[in-house]
Amino acid sequence: QDASAGDAAIDAAFKELELIEDVMSLYRANSQLSRLNRDGVLDDPHPYFVEVLHAAQAMARRSDGAFDVTIQPLWNVYTAAQQRKQLPTDAEIAAAKICVDWKKVHIANSQIRLDGRGTEITLNGIAQGFAADRVAIVLREHGVEHALIDTGEIGAIGTKANGDAWRIGIQHPRDREAYVSVAKLAGRCLATSGDYA
């Protein structure tokens, strides 16, 4: 491909990431996720939001609640305690746990609703994989046959220029020159459609 086609593909991929951030970011005050957490209800959610929440709820059912997007209240308690350079109290933890229950999330194409005061969700355990899948789709639509994708989840299209599989490593925590493990990726995202993680 020529440089202009490559630039167009990259621009489209970043535009897709921007859309996903606008829908699912905890760190954007006006994202759909932030509005849902603030108001407890979100009308006319983006189809991506509905899709990811359905996938998350399916994982919650399969894991008997071990995967639970409503963990955010507990995360908030630990974050606040960390800022005080303390651990949260037993009472703070118990109060947050009352709000954690994946069954409090109700999803329809027209509305997403959270039951109970204080219930909030985070998509940090699933949105990055969804983003990697969406970027791969957009790049393929623009004719890209080979790419390494990092959205917080690592994915790949095709191979490196020399035909070798992409290689990713997990850096050793105490030795910057060493890796705990190395994996080869050949032609597909680690995240598969409907799983996103």
Alpha carbon gap, first and last residue = 31 Å
User: What's the total number of strands?
Assistant: 7
Assign the structural class, choosing from mainly alpha, mainly beta, alpha/beta, alpha+beta, or little secondary structure.
Answer: alpha+beta
**Proportion of residues in helical segments:** 40-55%
Classify the beta-strand content into a percent band. 15-25%
Strand order within the widest beta sheet = 1-3-2
Largest sheet: 3 strands, antiparallel
Rg for CA atoms: 19 Å
Overall mean pLDDT: 90
Shape: globular
Low-confidence stretches: 189-197
Q: With helices defined by DSSP (H or I, 4 residues minimum), what is the helix count? A: 6
Elements, N to C (H/E): HHEHHHEEHEEEE
Quick structural overview:
This protein has 197 residues and is an alpha+beta fold.
Task: Offer a few descriptive terms.
single chain, 197 residues, alpha+beta, 3-stranded antiparallel β-sheet, disordered C terminus
SSE layout and pairing:
Elements: H1 3-24, H2 32-39, E1 41-43, H3 47-62, H4 72-83, H5 90-97, E2 105-107, E3 111-114, H6 127-141, E4 147-150, E5 154-157, E6 166-171, E7 179-185
Antiparallel strand pairs: 1-3, 2-3, 4-5, 6-7
